Amino acid sequence: MSFRTIEWRDNKVVMIDQTRLPGEEVYNEYEDFQGVAEAIRGMIIRGAPAIGVAAAMGVALGARDIIADTYESFSRQLANVCDVLARTRPTAVNLFWAIERMKRVAEANRDRDLQFIRETLKAEAIRIEQEDLEICRAIGRHGGQLIREGATVLTHCNAGGLATAGYGTALGVIRAAHEAGKNIQVFADETRPWLQGARLTAWELMKDGIPVTLISDNMAGYFMKKGAITACVVGADRIAANGDTANKIGTYSVAVLAKENKIPFYVAAPVSTLDLSIKSGDDIPIEERHASEVTHLQGLPVAPEGVKVRNPAFDVTPARYIAGIITEKGVVRGDYEKELKALVGQ
Ligand code: MRU
Predict the structure, then answer these.
(1) Rounded distance, CA 270 to CA 49, Å?
(2) What pLDDT score does 346 carry?
(3) What is the helix, strand, coil percentage profile of the chain, to 5?
(4) CA of 197 to the centre of ligand 1 (A)
(5) Nearest to 150 by CA among 64, 227, 42
(6) Which of 135, 157, 322 to mutate to test the pocket of ligand 1 (most atoms within 8 A of CB)?
(7) 0.85 exceeded by pTM
(8) What's the mean pLDDT in 184-203?
(9) 6-137, superfamily in CATH?
(10) Best of 137, 191, 247 to mutate for ligand 1, by most ligand atoms within 8 A of CB?
């Protein structure tokens, strides 16, 4: 891949600015945790695993700048850093997973000197980023086998290199099938209102020379009914214990259409996207974003001023629509409740 989504460089966090793609490839530098929190909230960086990496790096930046004499004082201030980062976006569980992992590392080293803890947190954040790339490749290895020669794969939103440390989850599956020499093509839903499909998925697939066709969201049913789509693969923001999956708004419609047309609908996600503390999708918090994302396109109004708007950023696809959940540890099918527990050794 010819871009870096996020990296720790010269004691700063560098991110490709996803609000400016595909027009401009600009990299922003963040020197403090408040900047990283703003970047997550403002979707400079987005996608569940990438948000997790950003939050971990934000914690490391915050820890670096804490002035304290005792571990107690350090830990109190670190809790504040974590709270600020945790309040940025509510749905993707990877954010909370990464913050908890960083907190545990600090706690495990509470008897060491503070400089050691700061360095250890920095190393942990970089490790989370490197691991995510490996995890995506493993997801690709498992999922790529499910994609047949000659397949046309529909994906929704962007679950690609831009949504992870690189390679992607849903796009990791597609990349792996392509790298295995299979002649496949992708249909990318544009993904209103934020246009992750049009702006990001189309951009990164074209960069890698993977054949991609862009469609608007309301065309998916038309192409499925015509037999033009043979599989669907999407990412996930949070997967409940029963397999219900929160992902970008519009994913549920794709899944229902896929079932109606007898097309397998797969979810690709790392184990860090599982939230087995939540029984079903009904309990997943759904972020509601600003109305202007719906009323405006690139700053231009496309609706009458003052119109009432709803803008949930995610929806939940019930597990019964999902043909398989592709993780770095393998593909889970059937009785999700039982199989997901077994996957994480519970
Ligand atoms: O609002 P976004 O762009 O952060 O939403 C992203 C998605 O819904 C992705 O499909 C999901 O996070 C998986 S990314 C590998």
Answers:
(1) 8
(2) 86
(3) 45, 15, 40
(4) 10
(5) 227
(6) 157
(7) yes
(8) 98
(9) translation initiation factor eif-2b, domain 1 (1.20.120.420)
(10) 247
Q: Count CB neighbours of 251 within 10 A.
A: 28
- Whether 268 is in the pocket of ligand 1, judged by its Cβ within 6 Å, is no
Question: Going by DSSP bridges, is the β-strand pair 265-268/231-234 parallel, antiparallel, or unpaired?
Answer: parallel
The terminus-to-terminus CA distance of the chain in angstroms comes to 36
With a cut of 90, say whether residue 2 has pLDDT above it: no
Confidence at residue 199, expressed as pLDDT on a 0 to 100 scale = 98
| Secondary structure of 87-129 in HEC code, one letter for each residue | CCCCCCHHHHHHHHHHHHHHHHCCCCCHHHHHHHHHHHHHHHH
User: pLDDT tens digits, residue range 273-306?
Assistant: 999 999 999 999 999 999 999 999 989 999 999 9
Average pLDDT score, the chain: 98
CATH superfamily for 141-343 is Translation initiation factor eif-2b; domain 2 (3.40.50.10470)
So what's the pLDDT on residue 284?
98
Q: Give me ligand 1 centre to Cα 220, in Å.
A: 19
Q: What is the mean pLDDT of residues 151-173?
A: 98
**Ligand 1 pocket residue status of 313, Cβ below 6 Å:** yes
Domain segments of the chain as ranges: 6-137, 141-343
Residues whose CB falls within 8 Å of the CB of residue 282, separated by 6 or more in sequence, listed in order: 244, 316
70 Cα to the center of ligand 1, angstroms:
39
117, 66 contact by CB (below 8 A): no
Nearest protein Cα to ligand 1, atom 10: 235
What are the CB-based long-range contacts (under 8 Å, 24+) for 20-29? 21/162, 21/199, 21/200, 21/203, 22/199, 22/200, 22/202, 22/203
294 burial via Cβ count (<10 Å: 0-12, 13-18, 19+):
middle
- Please, which pLDDT band fits residue 342 given cuts at 50, 70 and 90? very high
